[in-house]
Design goal:
Elements: H1 9-44, H2 60-70, H3 81-97, E1 108-110, E2 113-115, H4 125-146, H5 150-181, H6 186-195, H7 199-202, H8 204-217, H9 229-232, H10 242-267, H11 286-311, H12 319-348
Antiparallel strand pairs: 1-2
Length: about 350
């Protein structure tokens, strides 16, 4: 039994504060992603978009959140009520806890203590991410099945088979990156890129495969078959209302934010500032960490924009095309990339 005196209470307090900050920031970013998506869609369709609630429509996400919060909550009579509530809760939980291993910036000094801007620096960070992401499909399946609606069940089955299929290609694409970095720690991967070159230069094919699979994992167009309104009325959350529906919708945007953060961490240097030697500017102290955080967020913002740009540009796949791409195109490409990477590493080490 661990004695209470041996616990570093200040470290525990630091982590709790960081958890609260990351959770609140993720929710705020997800909220304003809805605003950004509507504005981007309006621009591409030559419309104005939200412009009534607050200046430039900036309060529209608050209005939408309030609408969901105060709407009547309906639970179908023939649904499994416990699982009906568990589904959106699980979807939101898995979306949020993925951020635990992401290094948001370098260490900072506060009150004489070195504070890490990473909730948990575990040496199997990538495995943790994949473990949590694989649990996210249960939120979709449980919600679709417990609704006792045939359209919701069909959408949930689509979502489950899609996530399982594209997780394979995503995992295989990362093996090539791990062969180069020789570590599963996300912080070490970032530090290696800061000392050398970003992984996108070594593994462009792995990035393309990983990003394509991220679109499928987030159920984003052109992989939004679980939410194909023209075929399934609405999707796996058809019977949901109020904040249960809000949890499903917010989970998708949180997943988009976290997926962008992981893409940046693995392939684009994380919080590395381009054309700046961080080691030579260590005297900047906390300002260097703040600049790294801002740079990290700008990179994430670019990929969030890319998610949205693709949604309003590329049409939805048919389901057979979606499965064909995953099993017959992406998995063989990821395997070939892994073999080529291994051959190159062996040749260079001779």
């Amino acid at each position: 039994m661990i004695h209470l005196l041996t616990v570093d209470w200040l470290l525990l307090l630091e982590k709790l504060i960081l958890i609260v900050i990351v959770v609140m920031a993720s929710l705020v970013i997800a909220m304003y992603e809805t605003y950004a998506e509507r504005k981007i869609a309006a621009f591409m369709q030559d419309r104005i978009g939200p412009n009534r609630a607050g200046p430039l429509g900036l309060l529209q996400p608050l209005a939408d959140g309030g609408k969901l919060f105060f709407k009547e909550e309906i639970i179908p009579n023939h649904s499994n009520k416990i699982l009906f509530i568990l589904g959106p809760s699980l979807a939101m939980l898995t979306a949020m806890i993925t951020s635990a291993v992401i290094p948001w910036s370098g260490d900072i000094n506060l009150f004489g203590r070195t504070v890490s801007l990473q909730i948990a620096d575990v040496n199997i960070g990538i495995l943790y991410v994949f473990a949590v992401v694989s649990l996210g499909v249960y939120g979709i399946m449980i919600g679709g099945w417990s609704s006792n609606n045939k359209f919701s069940l069909l959408a949930a089955l689509r979502g489950a088979s899609q996530v399982i299929s594209y997780e394979l290609a995503m995992g295989l694409s990362l093996i090539a990156v791990l062969m180069i970095t020789q570590t599963l720690s996300l912080k070490e991967i970032v530090e290696q890129q800061m000392a050398s070159h970003w992984n996108i230069l070594y593994q462009p094919l792995a990035f393309i495969i990983f990003f394509t699979c991220a679109l499928a994992e987030c159920n984003r167009t052109p992989f939004d078959l679980p939410e194909a309104e023209s075929e399934l009325n609405m999707g796996y959350h058809q019977e949901y209302s109020s904040m249960k529906l809000g949890f499903y919708l917010f989970a998708e945007y949180v997943n988009m934010f976290i997926s962008s953060a992981i893409v940046v961490t693995l392939f684009f240097g994380g919080y590395d500032i381009p054309f700046l030697d961080e080691a030579a500017h260590a005297d900047w102290g906390n300002w260097l960490a703040l600049a790294g955080l801002v740079c990290f967020m700008l990179k994430i913002g670019f990929f969030i924009f890319l998610f949205m740009w693709i949604r309003w540009t590329v049409p939805r796949f048919r389901y057979d095309q979606l499965m064909d791409l995953g099993w017959k195109k992406l998995i063989p490409l990821a395997l070939a990339n892994m073999v080529i990477t291994g051959a190159v590493i062996l040749w260079m080490n001779k």
